[in-house]
Amino acid sequence: MSYYPKSLERLISELAKLPGIGEKSAQRLAFHLINQPKQDLEDLSDSLLGVKDSIHFCPNCFTITDQEMCEICSDPKRDQSIVCVIEDIRDLYALERTHEYNGLYHVLHGAISPLEGVGPGDIKAKELIERLKDLPIEEVIMATNPSPEGEATAMYLKNLIAPAGIKVTRLAKGVPIGADMEFVDEITLTKALEGRTEF
Fold first, then answer.
1. pLDDT in tens, the chain (199 residues)
2. Is the separation of the CB atoms in 10 and 2 below 8 Å?
3. Could you tell me the pTM of the whole model?
4. Do residues 108 and 125 lie in contact, with contact meaning Cβ atoms separated by under 8 Å?
5. 64-198: what CATH class?
6. Among 17, 26, 54, 159, which one is most buried in terms of CB atoms within 10 A?
């Protein structure tokens, strides 16, 4: 039996659904929120609904944007001859923090994982291949995570891309095996980009 009022219990339950938030953290957040001014809570609520209403995938690279096309794809100063293939949107922000990469991106939204029932049709692989036909791409950097799934995905894509004569490179192994790109520091990512090799 809960001693919390039903509305507070519901708030705790909803907060506990967030990644990395357990029951105790949800309780702390809920008590913090109920002690905030109503206007702050309305602003928070508006921003949550606003992001859900305005954010969508870029039709080119499949990152998130609130414009018709993301800022990277629409920036004429970006190198249009190179595409960096990543698994997750957060990987894009990790690479951008290095200030070393100035090309385009392609977000796969996952990696091939037969054990989890994720096949090539469940990620944006077909969209990448179609995109490569339409752009004057000279190099594709495989920046999938250095995990068995990331390696399998990179190899699968390399085999699809290679017949087109496009150079396929892989990030250097400065990125630790089993690490998620979003948690790798900028220096390691910079060195990995600089030391990439043909795949």
1. 467 889 999 999 999 999 999 999 999 999 999 999 999 999 999 998 988 889 999 999 999 999 999 999 999 999 999 999 999 999 999 999 989 899 999 999 999 998 889 999 999 999 999 999 888 999 999 999 888 899 899 999 999 998 989 999 988 766 666 778 788 878 778 777 877 777 6
2. no
3. 0.77
4. yes
5. alpha beta
6. 26
Integer angstrom CA distances of residue 37 from 4, 46, 50, 117, 168: 20, 15, 20, 46, 54
Domain ranges of the chain: 6-54, 64-198
